[in-house]
Amino acid sequence: MTTQRSSARPRHPRDVLDEAIENDSITQLTEALDLAKSNPIRNTPYDKFLASALSSCVQDGRIDLVGHLLEQESASMTFLSPPIVWTKFSIPLLELLIAHGWDINRSAESGARTRRQRIIDLACGDETFVRWLVDHGAQVDGGEDEYEVYPEPAPLLETCAVRGSVSTFLFLQARGARLGKRTLHRAAEEAAAARADPSITYDSASVESDPNGAEAALVKRRQGRSEMLRFLVENLKLDINAMDTEVQRPFHWGTPLCYVATKPNGEAVGKWLLEKGADPSIKNTEGADAEYVAKDHDCDKIVALLKDWKTAHGLDGGK
């Protein structure tokens, strides 16, 4: 009679790596690396596994594990694109990466999602990060004005108009960041998406009572987008009727008012733009005015607003 011995199947290196990241454990990380050496993953050389492990640790913000991989294993930073670094961004993490040669001005790959963005493009919503990045060599110029579908990336002030504060905008502008053709357009679009109302002052009571709550976040967003829109129109004096492009491009709607017309609850922003001088009769490169754009996006409230405005001001199409 023979006795069969069952040998335990070696654990997969990736499973151990996931546990190491979850537990922030260098011991488990070392185990995962040893397994990857002794039982290589099919079609994954050890150097590639190392680079992938580094990417995963960076994405989870595990600074100790990142330091071990860079200092003890000399892991390649090949996969560390700006969006990966931004996932759980912190200044200590970026300091560590830069100390080992990561380029603070590295661009992401081309494409609809990444659009060759740099870390400073992604950080525009946080003034503390923006100031730190600029102080440590992040470039603020660049950005495309001429492109086929969308800029890769957009000029930095255009991005800041969507994500950032007026204070951040002024800081970047003073250091040479450029406006884009759609700076006001994108700001108006984002304000409309947030259901902001630039004509009012937002009550800060909900923010003070529960600064980390959902209601506070909503108020902050609407307040920030309203402040940016007022600044661009009233202080910077950007052309409220400027066209976004001279040639037909996807997702280019025309004037800032046309951008607002794509958002179903943007009537407060639309009304504010009209009162500031927006002309609803201007047609885009496809021959559509703001009312047509609103109809095309099933934005009934905007359609009603524009019809009423045209009727009250004797403009064609108000009937």
UniProtKB/TrEMBL annotation:
Classification via SUPFAM superfamilies: Ankyrin repeat
Species name: Cylindrodendrum hubeiense
UniProt-recorded name of the protein: Ankyrin
Annotated signal sequence range: none
UniProt-listed InterPro entries: Ankyrin_rpt-contain_sf, Cul2-RING_E3_ligase_SR
